[in-house]
Amino acid sequence: MTKLEIREQYLQKRNSLSAEDRWEIEQYVFDKVLDIISRKSCGTVHCYIGNPEKDEFPTLQLIEKIWLRNIQVCAPRMDKGRKLNSYLIHSDSKLELHPFGILEPPPLHFIDAANIDLVLVPLLVHDHNLHRLGYGGGYYDRYLPTCSNAYKLGMSYFEPIAAIPDVEATDVALDEVVWKV
User: Fold this and answer.
1) What is the pTM of this model?
2) In Å, how far from its chain's centre is CA 113?
3) Does the N terminus or the C terminus of the chain have fewer Cβ atoms within 10 A?
4) What digits encode the pLDDT tens for the residues 3-51?
5) Chain segment 73-86, per-residue pLDDT in tens
6) How does pLDDT run across 41-53, given as a tens digit for each residue?
């Protein structure tokens, strides 16, 4: 299968999850992510803002739980030149809708990637080598190399597949992916 075929298959598979299965997976994965954040003694976490309307992880719920632990959270914003940057968010931050249909923080409090302890990376599916298949824009593959000190963590609704095809030198492997076993 090609990356495009795998992407289409897992989008459909994710969309077909029942609300009960989805909720159960999300709670399990969020608990594991919070354990990892504590174990790594993270002070700053970069977390993408998932879109529940697209059946993505509802990461705003996770972000609220991270804040309760007095940990800074920053979120991605697509800046000029297809560049992803991180900006600090708070419970009262006014998120903006990007033309791609994703919420992002206003460009007020830039966080240098070198100061991020853990990056939660979006994905559709991953493999046993911790390569991920996202939406195909390459934003995180360009961003992750700048996060020199960060632990790269993915969250998945599904167990890993054998291998992502055609992995390129610019595809950044994750350190760990959490899914419900």
Assistant:
1) 0.95
2) 15
3) C
4) 999 999 999 999 999 999 999 999 999 999 999 999 999 999 999 999 8
5) 999 999 888 899 99
6) 999 999 999 988 8
Place of tokens 């360009």: 142
- Amino acid in the structure at residue 85: N
Cα–Cα distances in angstroms (integers) from residue 145 to residues 17, 22, 67, 85, in the given order = 33, 31, 26, 12
* DSSP classification of residue 57: -
Q: Which domains does the chain have, with CATH numbers?
A: 3-178 (3.40.50.10420)
C-alpha 132: how far from its chain's center? 11
Closest of 31, 10, 139, 124 to residue 83, by C-alpha: 139
Nearest CA among 50, 5, 57 for reference residue 164: 5
Alpha-carbon distance 72 to 45, whole Å? 6
Q: Are residues 101 and 131 in contact, defined by beta-carbon separation less than 8 angstroms?
A: no
Residues 121 and 154: their CA atoms lie apart, in Å, by: 5
Average pLDDT over residues 156-169: 95
